[in-house]
Amino acid sequence: MSERSRNLPRRSCLSSPGSNDRFLQKAVSVPADMSFLDLEDSVAPSEKAAARKKVVEAIRDLPWDDRVLCVRVNAWDTPWTYQDVVEVVGNSGMRLDEVMLPKVQSASEVVALDLLLTQVEKNVGLPVGHIGIEAQIETTRGLIEVESICASSKRLETVIFGPADFAASMEMPVLTGGVQIPTYPGDHFHYVFSKILMAGRANGLQVIDGPYLKVRDTDGLIDYCKRTATLGYDGKWALTPDQVEVINSVYSPTQELFDRAWDILEAYKTATESEGKGAVMFGDEMIDEASRKMAAKFVARGERAGR
Ligand code: GLV
Ligand code: MG
Predict the structure, then answer these.
(1) Beta strands of the chain (E only): which ranges?
(2) How many CB atoms are closer than 10 A to CB 136?
(3) How far, in Å, is the centroid of ligand 2 from the Cα of 108?
(4) Strands 206-209 and 132-137, sheet pairing
């Protein structure tokens, strides 16, 4: 729906607490593909109302570049969600691209947000459908329902995994959000990553991994980024400017792979259009229509990342 932001890159998605003016101002100068201004877990209950005003001012007044701009509202099981939406979407104007809904447990929660957004848009004169939705999957119930959640609204642009809340919901024996459990012989989130990715892609969504809370552990972050980037995720949350730099780099296709994908597209085009062949040799590999599809996705992602 929100056509401006749907296909913009989201390699790095920078989180900024909505209650902190300094962090909000700093976010503008950090080269993240997306910024989300948080009203949820990084804001204390006593600051929720004040944070709404700061977030509106930040959206309206700060010199944002053309990155995706989003607000994370509070989950539907709190008393704050509807006022977050009415106040922030109602006063932010056209620059706000999306609302992120945390702890989504069922498709009906996304539908409820979609309906509320339509009313707010009509009331304040925004085009209906202007605001997109990002859905966070971070509870056991949310994961069980992820397929219907991802199919629940045309406003959906991304689905996001929230490793910290998910570990709590699963009662996993870990105390840091987003890290691997060293005693597990494999990746304890592999099934979760794959399930969310499939549900997202089946509905044309971008798929994003959540935060890595050991913010000084660059090697650990690189390892973690490689896991989801290799599966095909579009990007990951960042909590600091240093994390943005690492994430942008790991989630960008290398120039070598990007150039190879281009060459596959060219070779396949020549084979099918000029030579009437469906399969052709490319170096020492056979390529066909499926190879074209893989290469086309790769090129699109590379172009989004500025290749
Ligand atoms: C993010 O919100 C998380 O819970 O990991
Ligand atoms: Mg969370």
Answers:
(1) 12-17, 34-38, 68-72, 98-101, 132-137, 156-161, 206-209, 235-238, 280-282, 285-287
(2) 24
(3) 19
(4) unpaired
Cα Rg, the chain, nearest whole Å: 20
Mutate to test the pocket of ligand 1, among 13, 36, 41 (most ligand atoms within 8 A of CB): 41
pLDDT tens digits, residue range 155-207?
Answer: 999 999 999 999 999 999 988 888 888 888 888 999 999 999 999 999 999 99
Q: Which atom of ligand 1 is nearest to the CA of 237?
A: 1
- Verify whether ligand 1 is closer than 6 Å to residue 211 (CB atom): yes
The domains found in the chain, sorted by start residue, are 12-251 (3.20.20.60), 255-305 (no CATH)
Residue nearest to atom 1 of ligand 1 (CA): 162
Residue 279's alpha-carbon distances to 24, 179, 282, in angstroms, are 53, 43, 10
pTM of the model: 0.94
Residue 159 — φ and ψ, nearest 5°?
A: -120, 140
Q: State mean pLDDT over 246-269.
A: 93
Instruction: Return the residue whose CA atom lies nearest to atom 3 of ligand 1.
Output: 162
Q: Are 302 and 265 contacting, i.e. CB atoms less than 8 angstroms apart? A: no
